[in-house]
Write a structure and sequence with these properties.
alpha/beta; Rossmann fold; 7 strands; 16% strand
């Protein structure tokens, strides 16, 4: 029943809602690829239906790393022992070390001493590896050894042909197909500049990473498994990079991409990030960094 106090109550309610909106600080906001506001719940439901999830992170952003761990837990609850984890941050020739550590054959101290770990391993990637260890999940070191990517940067893609058969086991099968017309690789060509005598070396050095990560993902995927892969957002943005190479190797894969971006305001997705990925996690630029 309407009373004479109803307008006053409506005004007070509106004032309180506006005050809450003005003071409530969101740590992140998720959007779909068209820029429509979405949610973690919707992202999780979509992820459950995928064969491969490419979680593109900002390497020094704590929100990315927290959401990676939460998504791992939730997908594990759904897929159980059919979930496989993998990451750019571990190089293929360290797979034996990872396996030995996960199986308790070597100590944590030995693993951390011998593996070529990123400086932010303990804060950002150790929780993922520890979760895999605690729950008997495979963890795949998917990246090309950095020394071989460096070879390509300095000497070109053909330099990989000179490697031994043992070394080639840690790289996608040669020759590696690279489409330099893809926008992401085109931007790297532009960064190399016209003064560079070998401008294609830079995008090729990134492409061998993308191709190798895709190769080890495909090698692990079966009809029963789901692969959750962690990589820098650049390597899967715009449905290129790892995504493109996955489709070249196994067209039928259902792939979900997640990207991460920083904005001054996260209430709307900036136009430049529309169609960046299936889901885009926007994070305030002022967010604390892990390094």
């Amino acid at each position: 029943m309407t009373t004479k106090y109803t307008p006053i109550l409506l005004i007070l309610t509106s004032f309180l809602l506006l005050s809450f909106t003005a003071t409530h600080k969101q740590a992140y906001q998720i959007f779909d690829k068209k820029g429509k506001v979405s949610s973690y719940k919707k992202m999780l439901q979509a992820a459950k239906k995928a064969d491969v999830i490419l979680f593109g992170e900002l390497h020094n952003n704590p929100i990315c790393h927290w959401l990676q761990l939460e998504l791992t837990k939730d997908l594990h609850a759904h897929k159980q022992n059919q979930l496989v984890l993998g990451a750019e941050m571990f190089e293929a020739d360290n797979q034996l070390l990872i396996n030995e550590y996960l199986q308790d054959l070597i100590s944590e101290k030995s693993f951390e001493k011998e593996a070529r770990l990123w400086p932010n391993y303990k804060t950002d990637y150790k929780p993922l590896l520890s979760y895999a260890k605690a729950n008997n999940l495979p963890f795949i070191a998917s990246n090309i050894p950095r020394r071989y990517a460096s070879m390509v940067y300095k000497k070109g893609l053909s330099s990989l042909d000179s490697l031994s058969e043992q070394a080639k086991k840690y790289i996608a099968p040669l020759p590696i197909e690279v489409d330099l017309s893809l926008p992401n690789y085109q931007s790297l060509l532009e960064m190399a500049g016209h003064s560079d005598p070998n401008p294609s070396h830079f995008p090729h050095s990134q492409a061998v990473k993308d191709a190798t990560m895709a190769y080890f993902i495909v090698q692990t995927c079966t009809n029963r498994t789901q692969f959750l892969h962690f990589n820098g957002a650049y390597h899967s943005n715009n449905f290129e990079g790892i995504f493109w190479h996955l489709k070249q190797q196994k067209k039928q894969l259902k792939i979900l991409t997640i990207s991460s971006v920083e904005q001054v305001s996260i209430s709307l997705l900036d136009k430049e990030f529309i169609d960046l990925a299936d889901f885009v996690i926007t994070i305030p630029e002022s967010m604390t960094k892990t390094y």
